[in-house]
Amino acid sequence: MAFKVALLVLMTYITTAIGVTYTCFTNGDNDAKNLCGGFISDFCGVISKTSGLGQGDTISRCATSAKSGIMCDFKVTNSGPVVSTTIDETQCTSTLNDIVNSCPMGGTGRYSSDTPVDPVLFSVDPNTRSTCG
Q1: Burial zone of 70 (CB within 10 Å; 0-12 exposed, 13-18 middle, 19+ buried)
Q2: How does DSSP classify residue 55?
Q3: Which site among 61, 68, 72, 81 is 20 to 30 Å from 13 CA-CA?
């Protein structure tokens, strides 16, 4: 019995220590999962190849599909305190997928790990217009 309690406590700690924290947008176009989910892998693959993201710097990309009439704005920001950081593709994908699965209108989020504050803030914003810009 003591083993089961210890295991439950350990699983709870891991769940809260590693995961995604996010804030959902409360207005805008709805259905982020269907509108933006298909673009996440490509976006994260491209930005993970960036050599370094300076403190306060943002990378923005617009993904569009004229065929379906949708457009998604993606952003990643180094909000500090780290002077320069790289973007982990797995963390990017996990964070953005959690956002679109939980936030119908998009939102912002961070991948939480064992560090006190992850400096990388991710954002996804769906739109029903078919062109970027």
Answers
A1: buried
A2: T
A3: 81
CATH architecture of 20-127: 2-Layer Sandwich (3.30)
What is the C-alpha separation between 95 and 101, in angstroms, rounded?
Answer: 10
Strand order across the 19-24 sheet: 19-24, 107-112, 120-127, 70-78, 58-65
Q: How far is CA 2 from CA 12, 20, 46, 78, in A?
A: 15, 30, 47, 43
Task: Say what the pTM is.
Answer: 0.78
Domain parsing of the chain, residue ranges: 20-127
For residue range 75-124, list pLDDT tens digits in order: 999 887 777 888 889 999 999 999 999 999 999 998 876 555 678 899 99
The residue that leads in pLDDT, 120 or 19, is: 120
> What would the pLDDT profile of 50-63 be if each residue is shown by its tens digit?
888 888 999 999 99
